[in-house]
Design goal:
heterodimer; A: mainly alpha; three-stranded antiparallel sheet; 3 strands; 71% helix; B: mainly alpha; 93% helix; rod-shaped
Chain lengths: 287, 156
């Protein structure tokens, strides 16, 4: 909620700024403003994004690891049932679009689907709760000004996170392309398709763009959807500060958008997974 | 929107998670799933087999019962036959026995009558002799006719 001491613009900005740890003015520390973050340059870390990302990934892994460790062929319990449901869903998706033999692809798809879903799910937690909590913790434990404690809880609204994953998929794609088709085969696909060897420059441009666009579209699609969703939640949250009528209307809007958002976050996780599978399939087969 | 080292951190975390999932999560779950699939398939096959065997056993039981019926009927008819045979046989035997008894009765009677006749004859001859001797006592001396009497007696 927008406090009395900050304006609407500041509120939005505050919500969309990451808690950044980096090197500035001769010492390591948290950034206090957007300008500080700019100054820190590349060698800085969004602590909040990475923290939530790793925590949610860890949650996913622990949940599935617990189920996997106790997995039996007997009648499954609740957790195992749930985990098997997801695993079978992912397995079906992988079998549907991936024809080659690679033990990495299915676990990769499972990790992406669950992890992205969990990170997106953070969007459904009311936008102010965790940042306010973080502000309070920062103020009491670290002696910081709560307005300077930035805290974004949805890792997928941070392009670093989405690009981190999309580029990782991209590396895997190139690695398996070269592994399966050879360096020559991989370069040949870029250089001699679709117009044959006399259309080499056109081929390079076309295939090069199509290659580069894969990780970019993968990352930006997820980021864009989540960032837009998050922004709308923030805008709705601002209505709570504008009287009872607007606040009530805002509550309805938030409920509606949250229900709609459940669909979006699942869909985005599914799209990320499916595209990853398709890209891996492309890396394994001539096309 | 700052691209910074978070990207690298996320990539590292990504590869680690994928690796861990590939190593510790996916294989046991898939093993459990395929194992259960196999168990279910086996169970269904066993049920099918059991059903089939049940049908066979029923068929076999029916056959056994039918055979037993046939055998029982045959045994009964044989028993009837045997019973009538036995009756006939014993009838014949009884007839023979009766014949034999009658026969032996006949011979016994004959024997008895013979001996009675013999006895009678002896008595008659004695009586005759007595009468004759009484009649002739006065006129004839016994000693004179002893010879004749003995010869007479021997003629019987």
């Amino acid at each position: 909620m927008s406090g009395a001491t900050i304006t609407t613009g500041e509120y939005i900005k505050h919500h969309l700024t990451n808690l950044t740890f980096g090197y500035q003015d001769g010492h390591w520390g948290f950034a206090h403003s957007a300008a500080d973050i700019k100054e820190m340059g590349f060698w800085a870390i969004h602590v909040d994004s990475l923290l939530w990302s790793v925590a949610l990934g860890g949650l996913f892994f622990l949940l599935f690891y617990t189920a996997a460790k106790r997995a039996t062929a007997e009648v499954p319990g609740g957790l195992q049932n749930f985990v098997e449901w997801i695993v079978e869903f992912v397995d079906e998706s992988v079998k549907g679009s991936f024809s080659a033999k690679n033990d990495l692809v299915a676990p990769l798809a499972l990790t992406i689907f669950c992890w992205v879903f969990l990170m997106n799910l953070m969007d459904l937690i009311a936008v102010d709760w965790l940042p306010l909590l973080a502000g309070a913790v920062g103020e009491s434990a670290l002696g910081m000004d709560p307005h300077h404690v930035f805290f974004k809880v949805v890792p997928t609204t941070d392009p670093n996170i989405t690009f981190g994953m999309a580029l990782s998929v991209f590396y895997l794609m190139i690695y398996y392309s070269i592994k399966n088709k050879g360096l020559g085969g991989f370069l040949g696909e870029i250089a001699f398709q679709p117009f044959g060897k006399w259309g080499l420059p056109a081929n390079l441009i076309l295939e090069g763009i199509s290659l580069i666009s894969k990780p970019i579209s993968l990352a930006l699609r997820l980021f864009g959807n989540m960032y837009a969703g998050e922004t709308i939640f923030i805008l709705i949250a601002m209505m709570y500060g504008a009287g009872w009528v607007m606040g009530g209307f805002g509550g309805l809007l938030q409920l509606g958008w949250a229900i709609f958002h459940i669909l979006i976050i699942t869909l985005q996780a599914f799209i990320f997974m499916t595209l990853t599978i398709v890209y891996m399939e492309m890396a394994h087969n001539e096309h | 929107m700052n691209i910074n080292a978070t990207l690298i951190g996320q990539s590292i975390a990504f590869f680690l998670f994928v690796f861990f999932v590939m190593k510790y999560v996916w294989p046991p779950l898939m093993a459990a799933l395929s194992e259960r699939k196999k168990q279910i398939a086996d169970g269904l096959a066993a049920a099918e087999r059991g059903h089939h065997e049940h049908q066979l056993a029923e068929q076999r039981a029916k056959n056994v019962i039918r055979e037993a019926h046939e055998e029982a009927t045959e045994i009964i008819s044989r028993a009837h036959q045997r019973a009538s045979e036995v009756i006939d046989e014993s009838k014949g035997k009884a007839q023979e026995e009766a014949d034999r008894i009658i026969e032996s009765g006949h011979s016994l009677v004959e024997q008895e009558s013979n001996s009675a006749r013999e006895h009678l004859r002896a008595e008659v001859s004695a009586l005759t002799l007595m009468g004759v001797s009484q009649i002739l006592q006065r006129e004839v001396k016994e000693s004179d006719h002893q010879q004749i009497l003995v010869e007479l007696g021997a003629k019987f």
